[in-house]
From TrEMBL:
CDD domains: Cis_IPPS. Mg(2+) binds at D26, E213. Keywords: Magnesium, Metal-binding, Transferase. The keyword Acyltransferase does not apply. It comes from Coleofasciculus chthonoplastes PCC 7420. Binds 2 magnesium ions per subunit. It is an enzyme of class 2 (transferase). Pfam families: Prenyltransf (PF01255). Substrate binds at residues 27-31, 39, 43, 71-73, 75, 77, 194, 200-202. This is Isoprenyl transferase. Its cofactor is Mg(2+). One of its GO terms (biological process) is polyprenol biosynthetic process. Catalyzes the condensation of isopentenyl diphosphate (IPP) with allylic pyrophosphates generating different type of terpenoids.
Length: 246
């Protein structure tokens, strides 16, 4: 059995850790295919990986983790897989809520949640309400999320305020715009990790990723363990973040 390092590995600098890590959890299907088992087994294993990563972020002092669980484009998957994922999200929420409370996790879901099955919406509401005063890691799950759609809904809200004379066009700046995004309560990600080698953003946090460092690994999501995360953080700490300056 693998020993779990609860402490931050000594080759990482506590002062220069990302505050907010975002993950695109890709490769569950391929992980399963390689083992000759159904794709859904890959998603099941993917949940375990996400849980381990959340715990690891918490252990090592990272304040926020945001995971892309279901995009607005994922409805195009076979109906059985979509239904499996919706049921999986719901079951996981029911099963993990007690532990999230014990571990002081604050969970929120972002995306167009009204299009999700009502029973899932109920569990999301319950988990968000119960954990809202927790003070530990902020865990955000993007579900039925699309970056362009998020930007459009912010534009509509702002345009309506201008139309009603509550806001002047010149008042619209980056800070105001950010406050109208789903992620208003969390800072922008410092580090984006994408597994299974794809080099795309796939409509994830388009506005918020403006200055994120990207780390792409060939590992399939279910194989992305603590050591893989450790390697991602080493790579991150080697980067020089200039935010457009020299
Ligand atoms: C991408 O792999 C993964 C998904 C679309 C689903 C990820 C969701 C989870 C791991 C569950 C998270 C759950 C909660 C409640 C927080 P893929 O199917 O695109 O794999 P492939 O690219 O190999 O086909």
């Amino acid at each position: 059995m693998q020993t779990i390092l609860k402490e931050l590995p000594s080759d990482l600098d506590q002062e220069r850790l990302p505050k907010h890590v975002a993950v695109i959890m890709d490769g569950n299907g391929r992980w399963a295919k390689r083992r000759g088992i159904p794709r859904i087994m890959g998603h099941r294993r993917g949940v375990d990986t996400l849980k381990q990563l959340l715990r690891c972020c918490d252990d090592w002092g990272i304040q926020a983790l945001t995971a892309y669980a279901f995009s607005t484009e994922n409805w195009g998957r076979p109906i059985e897989e979509v239904e499996f994922l919706m049921t999986l999200f719901e079951r996981v929420l029911i099963r993990e809520l007690k532990e999230m409370m014990e571990e002081n996790v604050r969970i929120q879901f972002v995306g167009n949640l009204t299009a999700l099955p009502q029973s899932l919406q109920n569990q999301i509401e319950r988990a968000m309400t119960q954990t809202q005063n927790n003070t530990g890691i902020q865990f955000t799950v993007a579900t039925n999320y699309g970056g362009r759609e998020e930007i459009l809904q912010a534009c509509r809200t702002i345009a309506t305020q201008v139309q009603h004379g509550q806001l002047q066009p010149e008042d619209i700046d980056e800070a105001l715009f950010s406050r109208h995004l789903y992620t208003a309560n969390i800072g922008d990600p410092d580090l984006l990790i994408r597994t299974s080698g794809e080099m795309r953003l796939s409509n994830f946090l388009l506005w918020q990723m403006a200055y994120a460092e990207f780390y792409i690994t060939d590992a399939f999501w279910p194989d992305f363990d603590r050591e893989a995360f450790h390697q991602a953080l080493i790579a991150y700490q080697k980067r020089e973040r200039r935010f457009g300056k020299v």
